[in-house]
Specification:
heterodimer; A: mainly alpha; rod-shaped; B: alpha+beta; 6-stranded antiparallel beta sheet; 8 helices; globular
């Protein structure tokens, strides 16, 4: 199991990654 | 560890740490790709202190839209995506197949940032450990210099496209910054880290 600090960091990383991808999407406006 | 937690205090929780890291590179004149805080396990006179993952902020390569073809193999990309799907399932509890965020290529710098979460450094060893031990900044610019470093982390960073790695000691840990660009030593940045990551005092306003 992952320590809490890494879980939080991972969650942030994945959320930011999703935001970047949505922003790059041709459907983004 | 308990000693580190006590030293950091309630004001310095992980959210505060995240704000510091984010503020540091979002407001910097230079284009940093990521920032990591390596947290010291604290002073234990029976064993050397260890620097482990405290928190990190991945900004990405903002000035480099993906125009260059990645050199990673298809198998390597599939491996990275599989790991990311598994981590995503672990975090969100959702089924990996349902998650569309992993479809995009996992870049070299994203991967380097992710694998950093698994690493730790004994005081005096590795780039962060050296910065901690000497209480001096370690600043390496250029792929050539990174590739010949005796520190595994510097060589690893170079392999994943990093051109500059900086480790700056602070109380209770080391702030590491990495960039895919060539960035030369900045006293301004060193001073900012001293102020922002001085855990002996209350956190300053950003």
């Amino acid at each position: 199991d992952l320590p809490l600090s890494r879980k939080k960091s991972l969650r942030r990383f994945l959320e930011k990654r999703k935001e970047r991808q949505v922003a790059k999407s041709p459907y983004a406006y | 560890s308990a000693s580190t937690s006590a030293a950091i205090g309630s004001e310095w929780n992980q959210d505060t740490l995240q704000q510091r890291l984010q503020g540091l590179i979002d407001n910097a004149r230079e284009s940093w790709t990521y920032a990591i805080f390596w947290q010291s396990s604290g002073v234990d006179y029976t064993a050397p202190s260890v620097l482990g993952w405290g928190d990190g902020y991945y900004k990405g390569e903002v000035n480099k839209p993906k125009t260059v073809e990645s050199v990673t193999s298809l198998a390597e990309q599939e491996h990275r995506k599989k790991v990311l799907r598994e981590l995503n399932s672990l975090i969100s509890g959702s089924h990996s197949q349902e998650n569309e965020t992993i479809d995009e290529e996992v870049t070299d710098t994203e991967w380097f940032f992710l694998i950093s979460m698994t690493q730790s450094f004994v005081n005096g060893h590795g780039l962060p450990g050296q910065a901690m031990f000497s209480n001096q900044p370690v600043w390496i610019t250029g792929r050539d210099r990174l590739s010949v470093s005796h520190c595994e982390r510097a060589r690893q960073g170079q392999v994943f496209g990093i051109q500059t790695i900086v480790c700056l000691p602070s109380s209770n840990g080391v702030v590491e910054l990495g960039s895919t660009e060539l960035i030369f030593q900045s006293l301004d940045l060193i001073n900012q880290v001293k102020v922002l990551f001085n855990f002996g005092n209350s956190p300053p306003d950003l």
